[in-house]
Amino acid sequence: MTIVTPSGKRKLSAVGSDSTVVWNPGPAKAATLSDFRDEAWKNMLCVETANASGDYRVLNEGQSHTLGVLIGRA
Length: 74
Hints:
Blueprint: E1 2-5, E2 8-15, E3 19-23, H1 26-32, E4 46-50, E5 68-73
Antiparallel strand pairs: 1-2, 2-5, 3-4
């Protein structure tokens, strides 16, 4: 995945996942966050590696799964 911003492009490569969640709180949610300026949502994008939908994992006791994301220049 490549994210394009005014300051440049970033390539994101997930490790341990085929799913990515991209979100922004928007004005209503941002107004409820005490550590988030009301207008900060306009310049914010959250990109999270996830195991969602068909990419979910079921872990039994004692098992583990590692997620990560590598961020580089595109």
